[in-house]
Amino acid sequence: MKKILNTCLKIVLPFVLGGAIMYRTYRDFDLSQVGNVWHQLDWFWMSVSLVFGVLSHALRGWRWRQTLEPMGEHAKRSNCVNAIFISYASNMIIPRLGEVSRCGVLAKYDGVSFSKALGTVVTERLIDSLCVLLFIGGTLLLNIHIFDAFFAKTGTNFHSVSDWFASPILYIVSASGIAFFVLLYFLVRKLAFFSRIKGLMLNVWEGILSLRKVKNLPLFIFYTIAIWACYFLHFYLTFYCFDFSARLGWVAGLVMFVAGSIAVLVPTPNGAGPWHFAIISMMSLYGVSWEDAGIFALIVHGIQTLLIILLGIYGLAALPFTNKRPISGSRGV
Length: 333
Prior knowledge:
mainly alpha
């Protein structure tokens, strides 16, 4: 019963949170205008944008396959891509479920060690975090006045943030957290199943360190740059779908891309709610009306979410046809 309740909460709470933020953001909007803008949408640019969306997922699958090879795990290229498709769709149901589901796909169809695959996913997330930080740093330097206006508009300022970092409370909490995990480690060592957990964690750690053994590092770097370039173009090209956003330019696109990337960290389905609020707030700072910015966010997010769902369905349908049968006895560790 407790397990069922926890599962329900994991599914329901993100939807409730996203719905509440969506309601708060759009409660004063005249949504009847969405239909008028929809009929004027430039579908050529939207189609080009969607191509880059699909390509970003494919590139991520190819890069993932490359990180698995140094550990002796050889997955089919198509399985890696379809697993990525499924993972993004899975995150629509339960945030962060995709990281687990994609490892399960390769364990089932290619016999890839689940824990080693999970380790490579951790590596990917670390690299993604670094890329986001680089985007944030570069964008802040180019557009510090825009972010300053955004934080002022949303009731935040840099002085309060810097004061928080200067506070001794931060360091006390950090030291306490480290001490807690050190104590937890020694307690876990005493448990009977520690050896099994240790073996699992060693495999995960091996997956994390797989980047050091990647055979073609320049190709890995190319994939990484290409993935994030596709992410950016997937978003930025949608500017040309609307008359009110076509003039904004790539710098504004970079600012909003960064704001949206930060917003999707909030655990809601595909960032629904926080992403809309961030894009609307940023776009309004560039002279776009609040209503037009809201319609932009609603349509773009809706179409991109539909793409993720369709790719997930395609991945689920394609796997049985591209694999004669699942690998029997796939390894969990």
